[in-house]
Amino acid sequence: MTKLQNYIPKAILSLIIISAFLLMLGPAKQDSAIMDELAHIPAGYSYVKFLDYRLNPEHPPLVKALAAIPLLFQNLNFPTNQNSWQTDINGQWAVGNQFLYESGNNADKIIFYSRLMPMILLLILIGFTYFWANELMGRWWALLPAGLIAFSPNFLAHGHYVTTDVGAALGILVASYYFLKYIYNPTRKNIIIAGISFGFAQLLKFSAVLLGPFFIFIVAALFIEKTIKEIKSPVAENKFKKIFKIFLTDFGKLLLIFFIGGILIYLVYGLFTINYPIDKQYSDTGTILQGFGNRLLADNVVAMSGNKILRPLAEYLLGVLMVMQRSSGGNTSYLLGQVSNLGNWYYFPIVFLMKESLPVLILIFTAFLASIWNIAKNFYKGKKYTQNKFIEYLTTNFSEFCMIIFVAGYWLYSMKSPLNIGFRHIMPTLPFVYILTSTAIKKLFYWAPKNISGSLSQKLISTFNKILNLGIKSVILSGLLIWLITGTVFASPYFLSKFNELAGGDMNGYKYVTDSNFDWGQDLKRLKDFVNNPPSGEKIDKIAIDYFGGGNIKYYFGNKAENWNSTMGNPNENGINWLAVSVNNIQNSISRLSPTATITRSPQDEYLWLKNPLSPDYKAGTSIFIYKL
Question: Is the pTM of this model over 0.85?
Answer without folding.
Answer: yes
